[in-house]
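REQUEST ID: PR-0412
SUBMITTED BY: lab tech R.K.
PRIORITY: routine
TASK: structure prediction, single protein chain
INPUT:
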Amino acid sequence: MKKNIIGFVLVVIIIIAGIYFFTRSPSKTDVATNTTVATTTDNSQINPATTTPANGSKTVIGTSVEGREIDAYTYGSGDTNLLFVGGIHGGYEWNTALVAYQMMDYLKANPTAVPANVKVTVIPVLNPDGLNKVVGTTTGNFGVKDVAASTATVVAGRFNGNTVDLNRNFDCDWQANGVWQSKTVSGGDAAFSEPESLAFKNFVEAYKPTAVVVWYSSAGGVYSSSCHNGVSAETKALTQTFAKASGYPAFETFDFYAITGDMVNWLAKSNIPAISVLLTDHTSTESSKNQAGLQAVLQSYAK
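STATUS: complete
OUTPUT:
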């Protein structure tokens, strides 16, 4: 969180050009045309909270392939359950974990921002093993510390400890071999074969969220979800609410390439409104934009 993310401003952007893995057609906005590699020269860290938030509670919803905890932090006590998720692609999209922690800082500092009828849960790092591949560990916590990650390490950070892309491991059009950009990636042995995605599934089924917002990078937009059942009216409203407040453009479909086993689309299949918020690049958190989006979503569910 902010107190633990001391001096996290010295990020050097390394543009990897001409490397096939990161090449895509010029018409596409996303997926690492200017892929960035996190580098720091200080002891800055992205740390999970080491104590229970003052106005919330911490729950361990499961463990990763390598035994790391997957934590959820809850704020408020209403009956309308809103869920925010970061870090599904670990170290490849480490800024999605950082923005989740920043939103937790905001909720902790502003408990009245959560309407009385609302409960907010944040899962800041769904893929702790992938985050660890890029940023390493410091006294048991995940963080960026004197890291000059290679391109290969950054790519490896996208996957979990079984080299599975967790965003290809959910039950909407699941396939063993999925696609990321122009590359084939593992979707696992079956839908929910990975402990991280199974933990999320079990949590969602128990928590029964009213709506879900998931952070990814990078395309700079808000995308609706569906799984051959159309975009629901609730999902359209959620998309527009976040997009209008944040300033990101809104889209009903992600059409850069075919997606199988996608998490938000599985949520749509489960009749849960869900959106993907794609940060503009792989280093920025655009915290003011995302805080505005979060505030708007909370208010849209206030009675």
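NOTES: The CA atoms of residues 38 and 302 lie 38 Å apart.
REVIEWED BY: pending
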